[in-house]
Design a protein that fits this description.
- By secondary structure, this protein is mainly alpha-helical.
- It folds into 3 domains: 27 residues, no CATH class; 217 residues, Growth Hormone, Chain: A (Up-down Bundle); 207 residues, Growth Hormone, Chain: A (Up-down Bundle).
- The protein contains 21 helices and no strands.
- Helix 2 packs antiparallel against helix 9 and helix 12 packs antiparallel against helix 20.
- It is globular, with a radius of gyration of 24 Å.
- One of its GO terms (cellular component) is lysosomal membrane.
Amino acid sequence: MADIEERRSLLGGEGDDGSPSGGPADRAPGRPMPAICDPAHLLHRVVVLGFMCFLGFGSYFCYDNPAALQTQVLQDLNLNTAEFMQLYAWYSWPNVILCFFGGFLLDRVFGIRLGTIIFSLFVCVGQVIFATGALLNRYWLMECGRFVFGIGGESLAVAQNTYAVNWFKGKELNLVFGLQLSMARLGSTVNMNIMGWVYSRVADLVGSPGYTALGGSLMIAGVTCLFSLGCALVLGFLDRRAERILNKEQGKAGEVIQLTDVKDFPFPLWLIFLICVCYYVAIFPFIGLGQVFFIEKFNFSPAEARAVNSIVYIISAPASPILGFMVDRTGRNVIWVITAVAATLAAHMMLAFTFWNPWIAMSLLGVSYSLLACALWPMVAFVVPEHQLGTAYGFMQSIQNLGLALIAMAAGAILDNKGYLVLEVFFCACICLALMASVMLYFVDYQRGGGLNQSAAARAKLQKEATSDAE
């Protein structure tokens, strides 16, 4: 009965533009539903968007806990750098496989609502295991925690995107994705700048620094994961309510994975994969090791080192939507990719071979990192047909996680045996490979008609012609 009354209220309410939602024959008597409670109203969807954005906040906050506490983890647990970087490798290993099956699990097994809650639980449990390992000074338990955390982390991002597609359509969607990315970067930034302070407060409470203070700090960080789990529960309730009132279907991840499609991937797509792997392995492992680098080379205090190490995320938060809009308006994706990779190479070379203020290089790295993400990932949709998009993006994420796991281990070993200069040269070599692949992509695309490097106007014209032909 409540369901019928709720639906009658909705039908009697107003649409997004302020007009009645139906004609005279459609309206049922009864008091209109308040806008904030109406799933069809913009105000209600803005509330839902808030919960969507915070859904991944805890995951991104806790992902870089090791980087924010690099000095403390190394000292309190008596680890070498190779062992420290294993904490990042163990996060990536499960996602070499789960990138293919996360969408399938959401669509066919759990459903988006239950799946989101389950993956949020994995993130919470993984962080608790990780913190408990530090409390007990059991490194193997910390590795297990990062593995469990990784199972939930990437799949939760798939669920977040599925909710966004289900609630927001058309032009709204790009803005929503940009806001979600900004919130993710905000989580990473807050982590980088607050965890050192949290550790010092916990150390004061327990009486001295050590693995007990480290474990307590990581357990406090886990509160953000509980907050995200709460957002998952509220989102599930709101989505179920909207499904009942609006009589709409539950959201689908839309990622149809057919591994047999891999053999049909064109050569430009393999170049995009190569750029993705070679580029990102020089970003995330570097940030994971950056705090001690800035302390040792530039004589920064731990607080200053954490601040400069987080500038990539700080810049990425507001820059990603702006640069995404710029790429959408101009096109020329391959040129933007080459520009971003070249700027990243310049930033790494400044860090490796000069003693210039590292804020310059890290700011350049933040802008170029955001620009590459906006220009590279959409190109996959220009290369493969729509029915292969799920497989292409799943494969791209899979090899990216494989590369991150392997390079994280290699970076730790290089740093232990050769030092930061050789490590920076290694990262520069990875970026050089990405740059060569980018230039090769430009010429291969040029020979094939230049579809990837078209201007936005030319691309829109072709799309309009194709639509007219189809009609």
